[in-house]
Amino acid sequence: MSIEVRNLNKRFGPTVVCDDISIDIPSGELVALLGPSGSGKTTLLRIIAGLEVPDSGSVLFHGEDATRTDVRERQVGFVFQHYALFAHMTIFENVAFGLRVRPKATRPSEAEIRSKVTALLKLVQLDWIADRFPHQLSGGQRQRIALARALAVEPKVLLLDEPFGALDAKVRKELRRWLRRLHDEVHVTSVFVTHDQEEAMEVADRIVVMNQGRVEQDGPPDQVYDHPASPFVLQFLGDVNLFHGRFGAGRGDAKVSGEVSYVRPHELAILAAPAEGSLPVTLSQALTVGPNTRVEFKRVDDGSYIDVELPRSEFHALRERFPLDPGATVHLLPRRVTRFAQESEADPAAMI
Ligand SMILES: Nc1ncnc2c1ncn2[C@@H]1O[C@H](COP(=O)(O)OP(=O)(O)OP(=O)(O)O)[C@@H](O)[C@H]1O
């Protein structure tokens, strides 16, 4: 089932939460709504679900206007951050619940319920805990059951609001991959709210980047990362160094251009000698965490800091060729620069 959102507006009192939002979600896609806290992601999801009514604009399901359709008729499945399973019911009964409460005419037989719930528990790889109760499960297992329960009623659309938000980093990572694989099997149109850019990049077919109630960019993860439409998107999708004026080859016209140059920490090469477009810096500190080394440099000209990130093996190899200790002077040359006009620079207050 495809979803189209057309010129959607919603305010709460004076706060504009959805500001003329239009997005297209083709059938079977997994789309992430990504943005900082308060950017309107949850409100947009709730409007798609039918839990919230927009002030204007429309939501179309499979080309048909569903804006005023009741939540129960939209056939959406939900998974929330704190999805309360029924504590007094076994895992099996939790998943079966949506089928058992159907009106008699459409309710499957007991045998059908059994086979369906068993298949779903297998799908989320938890068939071995069917007889347990929710309190006997880990947080990650509970969210997988929440997903099985949402899928049991064969929703046309699956809506997930920070489903892994309450879990620790390692479990989150596992579940992201698991969700991706699950979606490849089930192919139900899914909208996934997150404020975690890594999660969005890893899980989604497409990312809708939101900021202050507006869509900043909408595209596949690589496109959004490699070709950000605005400084906000660039900065929200990962760490970046900011240089006023033109940095890199041809930086002579810095004052005329009125540009801001953005370079990600892993896009800077460390050189022993100056090259065309390089910048002299002194090493302030180097920190190795896991496979990467993060080096903080101080600009010789204005004293501001620049972060460089490289594989630790590469850092050690460089260190054998020239000194890379605190105080050493080296030169940084960008491999890739993204430039935006000065006036379109993102408002730092809008950042988290
Ligand atoms: N029912 C409501 N009444 C009044 N204001 C609301 C209501 N729901 C949301 N808001 C406000 O709307 C804005 C957007 O909230 P929303 O929850 O959609 O953002 P979000 O991007 O999902 O943020 P978060 O990641 O923190 O949940 C916030 O400023 C919030 O305070």
Automatic annotation (TrEMBL):
Keywords noted in UniProt: ATP-binding, Cell membrane, Hydrolase, Membrane, Nucleotide-binding, Sulfate transport, Translocase, Transport
GO cellular component term, pick one: ATP-binding cassette (ABC) transporter complex
Sequence ranges assigned to domain ABC transporter in this UniProt record: 3-237
Gene Ontology MF term list: ABC-type sulfate transporter activity; ATP binding; ATP hydrolysis activity
Enzyme class: hydrolase
Any Pfam family the entry gives: ABC_tran
EC numbers for this chain: 3.6.3.25
Entries under CDD domains matching the protein: ABC_CysA_sulfate_importer
Domain of life: Bacteria
Record has Translocase as a keyword: yes
Keyword Disulfide bond: no
NCBIfam families: 3a0106s01
Protein name: ABC type ATPase
